[in-house]
Amino acid sequence: xxxxxxxxxxLALSASAACAQQPSSPDNPPAQTAPPASDQVAPSPDxxxxxxxxxxxxxxxxxxPAMATLPxxxxxxxxxxxxxxxxxxxxxxxxxxxLLNPQGDALETAAAAAIQQSKFAPGTLNGNPxxxxxxxxxxxxxxxxxxPHLQPCIDPNGPSRSHLPPGTTPPxxxxxxxxxxxxxxxxxxxxxxxxxxxxxxxxxxxxxVRVEKGLGYGLDENAMxxxxxxxxxxxxxxxxxxxAIRIRIEVNFRLY
Length: 256
Prior knowledge:
Elements: E1 3-11, H1 17-20, E2 51-52, E3 57-58, E4 61-64, E5 80-88, E6 94-100, H2 106-117, E7 119-121, E8 123-125, E9 128-130, E10 132-140, E11 149-151, H3 159-162, E12 172-175, H4 183-187, E13 192-200, E14 206-213, H5 219-227, E15 231-233, E16 235-236, E17 242-243, E18 245-255
Parallel strand pairs: 2-10
Antiparallel strand pairs: 1-18, 3-8, 4-7, 5-6, 5-10, 8-9, 10-11, 12-15, 13-14, 13-18, 16-17
């Protein structure tokens, strides 16, 4: 039996940079965590039958990412992260692929091909595979291979958007560290999602990592240890200045 771990980064209820860095106190209580699963509305698909990666949905995850092939005429003189939304079907296939913020260069074509050639495990609802829309990025950076990664998916109608200061762009993970399955959890066949939150500071470093919903059996500690080693492209305000933003990170532990 093999262990697989996937990661989905999502925005939490965010405050401005000045507020986000203040420590908790009686006059400054910590932000409220997500409501218990029993209080949440059951996920429902859109008109085309596609779900979003919301609580109650086990998000798709990459099982075999393909590396992008750089065209000979590709401009690699500056760092670039190409981002898409993609529908991962109930069979794990890549369906509708939509480019975000297109610039019309050769890197976008290479990134799309890499995503289409990658293999995904499908998302599930109550253990049953369902089509789920995810956000995928392909980084073209000097120190990282150009392979797809799951990235934040911001719902423009959801609560996360309303809590971002106007004009603020969210942080994006540019370096991941894979958490390990604990021996105890593997023996007991524990699976599920560890929900963490972390403050991403102006330098893109995760600080104040907290467990909002855990699994126990050593998985919470392993998830926190891995997330502490992440690095992010920090959030930026409307003037392009880096700001601190608290985000949520789902670490999905599965056995197969």
